[in-house]
């Protein structure tokens, strides 16, 4: 009972704080802050965005950036309405959908039906969830209606981005001189090995001679193990990536072991075939066009600010 009393007190205090804040500002949740091409920005939604930006934005820039962010969101929502994906763009209607969604999830829990995501959404979580879903549906709609392109154009785009997006990793055959340094004598032994290499002795033989039980002096880095090696031995991995065939690295240390590595052979990985990545190329194209269109619409949008209400918003 004591714990319950504390919880109730906390709720009352929080509730009183919210009430006091609204009384001080004179604004209610549905109070109009601005309109973007006629689409309302309500006080409660504006406050939600302010809270999201508060930790990363200087106070003097907070109101401006919140309005800018909401302008882009309202532009996207208006575009979605044009495509028939949403009817009511007011935040009040979103709050109703939030309540309905949580009621639906409550009912599913009572009936022991599976649900995806949280059992209940908080306001911010539902806002992000609904906006994310709306963007996915809008991109799907415009990809079918506005941004359909031929395979020839897709192939041209594939050629333009394949180096950055679709290059397969090379297969690198590595030889390594690896000398543990736990006993404090590793540096001396590595200097001996380095001197032998400098005098032209065979790298492979030296690598074998310093290997424990004659093992572990070879390593093949390829597509299947590249991620694992990059995580377990990131320095060695980076050194290997730098080396053309026939070249060796300087001495470096990782995980208490001194290394010199040599690229014995390197096979080009090539590129993912166009037919296998065509959908990804199309997705990149739609994403690019989508961002351009949102930017264009945002720049062209007419924002009407209710200055008296905006001035009442307190930044604390």
Automatic annotation (TrEMBL):
The lineage of its organism: Bacteria, Bacillati, Bacillota, Bacilli, Bacillales. Residues 149-278 form the PpiC domain. This is Peptidyl-prolyl cis-trans isomerase. Keywords: Isomerase. It comes from Paenibacillus alba. It comes from the Bacteria. The keyword Heme does not apply. Pfam families: Rotamase_2 (PF13145). GO terms for molecular function: isomerase activity. Gene3D superfamilies: 3.10.50.40.
